[in-house]
Amino acid sequence: MAHKTLFxxxxxxxxxxxxxxxxxxxxxxxDINPQAPTHLLVIPVKPLPSLAQAEAGDQALLGALLLAAxxxxxxxxxxxxxxxxxxxxxxxxxxxxxxxxxHVLGGRPMAWPPG
Length: 115
Prior knowledge:
2 helices, globular
């Protein structure tokens, strides 16, 4: 069996996390190292290493990922003031877990460029 990522272990219930949303394709959790007052991670159950490995067959999953990101932002009360979605792809972009995920950040003004 392939090496399980931190996120796969969370999805499988092997590592505890504060789950804020779950369906058959997506799990969303609170980030343990928040970079904003609200910082959630939206993770596909399918262990896709990064956006760079997504294929045409993943199109519906990628759509579900973004819709879930919006849903958790709304549930967290971020819709009115706005929120930022971030997908880090590769080490130079800051991706530290090889499992595609979307950061949902909000609750404070965001600067541009993000750094």
